[in-house]
Specification:
UDP-galactopyranose mutase activity; alpha/beta; binds uridine-5'-diphosphate; 3 domains; 16 strands; about 375 residues; Rossmann fold; 13 helices; single chain; UDP-GalPyranose_mutase_C; seven-stranded mixed sheet
């Protein structure tokens, strides 16, 4: 088959690799002037590391199959995400673990921590929003310190107006384990993510700087099948309305210091600090040799047409709208497939993107 893949992010690149292997003729077109979508990284010689240009990307998965799959394209380092929280004059261990509870409440053992939380939480079997959920799991003290301000900045809404889903990603542990993820496999590719995408796209025709939407009908006519990884609402010219997204702005600082913050990720959870986190890229590469360092301040912002859609903002209203687009997509599924974070309108992590792309390729092409 002659297959057009719109978008060279992780979903498009995995599909291109699998389809080429299965003997199909693939052509990838990409709107930006580089491949890789939001996993794009570039080498910054002054800081001796790879910059996560569109925000931190830490690969983690519980699936040996997905881990081994990625292992074909790169060696992964032993980076483990251990975030710190800066709040007023203090630094806290995060995600919430026994050391955090020691720092906040002075408790030293799992039993003491359990008893302390039991006193603080507001039991609720049926929390109606993120605030109620947090009150019922970690109590108001920890919620105020770690969740309320950060979430307000991240989503532009108070946690009382949000579903609890996003926060359920975060572990809460009564041990000293401060790993951000529970998954068995975790790391950052040595050499960056762009090198992975390049390998996936080896032998595939790739063109950057091409906006599919400018000539959509022509592209669709020319190919037997189209895999579209852009926003599903944009494909249909927003005819039912615009889906909700959250965007980000990054402020990049090359600093004349060997080590700025001693960690890859520091979250700023107060509402009064405008950024949500500061990334220090050399710590992702686990390379602290260079005399300079590169840091990025991350500012969440409202999404307006033309901005990059970073986070699908799923709520009852946007899900109902997405369903309308999905019904439209189903009608043309013999010719066009919608995939990836934007095509499927899902708050996917990278391992989920890879799994979704592989499942689709197996079903449709093998
Ligand atoms: N969150 C928070 N405080 C933090 C970190 C996360 O309140 O210090 C909440 C916030 O609502 C966020 C969600 O937990 O959207 C998920 O956080 P995660 O770090 O997994 O988000 P991502 O890295 O995908 O932006």
């Amino acid at each position: 088959m002659r297959v057009l893949i719109v978008g060279s992010g992780l979903y498009g690149a995995v599909c291109a690799h699998e389809l080429r292997r299965a003997g199909h003729d693939c052509h990838v077109i990409e709107k930006r002037n580089h491949i890789g979508g939001n996993v794009f990284t570039r080498h910054v010689p002054e800081a001796g590391c790879h910059e996560h240009v569109y925000g931190a990307h830490i690969f983690h998965t519980n699936s040996k199959r997905i881990w081994d799959y990625m292992g074909q394209f790169a060696e992964f380092n032993h980076y483990v995400n251990r975030v710190k929280v800066a709040h007023e004059d203090s630094i806290y261990s995060f995600p919430i673990n026994l050391f955090t509870l020691y720092q906040v409440f002075g408790v030293r053992t799992p039993d003491e921590a359990k008893a302390c939380l039991a006193k603080d939480i507001i039991a609720n079997d049926n929390p109606g929003n993120m605030e109620e959920y947090c009150h019922s799991v970690i109590g108001p003290t920890l919620y105020k310190l770690f969740i309320e301000g950060y979430t307000q900045k991240q989503w532009g809404k108070h946690p009382r107006e949000l579903p609890a889903d996003a926060v359920k990603r975060l572990p809460v542990r009564l041990t000293f384990d401060d790993n951000y993820f529970n998954d068995r496999y975790q790391g950052i590719p040595v050499g960056g993510y762009t090198a992975i995408i390049e390998k996936m796209l080896e032998g595939v025709r790739v063109e950057t700087g091409i906006d599919f939407h400018l000539n959509r009908e022509m592209w669709i006519r020319e190919y037997d099948y189209v895999i579209y990884t852009g926003p599903i609402d944009a494909f249909f010219d927003y005819r039912h309305g615009v889906l909700e997204y959250r965007s980000l702005r990054f402020e990049r600082l090359l600093i004349d210091s060997h080590d700025f913050q001693g960690n890859a990720v520091v979250n700023y959870t107060e509402a009064s600090v405008p950024w949500t986190r500061i990334l220090e890229h050399k710590h992702f590469d686990m390379n602290q040799k260079e005399p300079m360092t590169l840091v990025t301040r991350e500012y969440p912002q409202a999404w307006v047409k033309g901005d990059i859609e970073y986070y699908p903002e799923r709520n009852a209203q946007s899900e109902a709208l997405f369903e309308q687009y999905r019904e439209e997509a189903d009608k043309i599924s013999a010719k066009i497939h919608f995939g990836g974070r934007l095509g499927e309108y899902r708050y996917y992590d990278m391992h989920q993107v890879v799994a979704s792309a592989l499942a689709f390729c197996e079903k449709q092409f093998v």
